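Exercise 7.
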Amino acid sequence: SNITSSGLQNHEMAFKGKAVDSKTVLFNLLLCLLIFYSLFYMIGSVCFGAFRLDHFDGLIPFDFKTEPAESNSKYLVNLLSLELTYFCSGLLFAAVVRRRVWDYALTVTLLHVMITSLVMLEFPMVWQWWLALGSGLFLMICNGQLIAYFTCQSDQSYASFSIY
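Solution. The predicted structure, written as tokens, is:
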């Protein structure tokens, strides 16, 4: 009976820990989404100004319909904004979540695809957009995980470059 009660206590403690964890995860996810879209609009507006476009498109994070051509300034602004947002987000996600940057990066990207589909009322079928999104995600995961690894290296609980 002694073994059962201590086993039950451990189980209850693990359960309580998990409940707190899910709140933290949800908070971090919302924070990451806020960071992602804030950065997207800030970087988008800087790129917009740099390329001297005449009309700032509020749909910049969701626009996959712009003609993908090197001569199209609006397309270049969208592409540059996307890549720079993903790059910078990875660095900031590492500061916020400290671990599992890859997990938050994937989740934010999946949510971004869903939000994009809702905003544009169409699922993105443009392969150039998916390629840009994929390379951005790769950048975000790589630099985010590296930052997290080097900043948490002194932390004993951060095992040597494990993905959990």
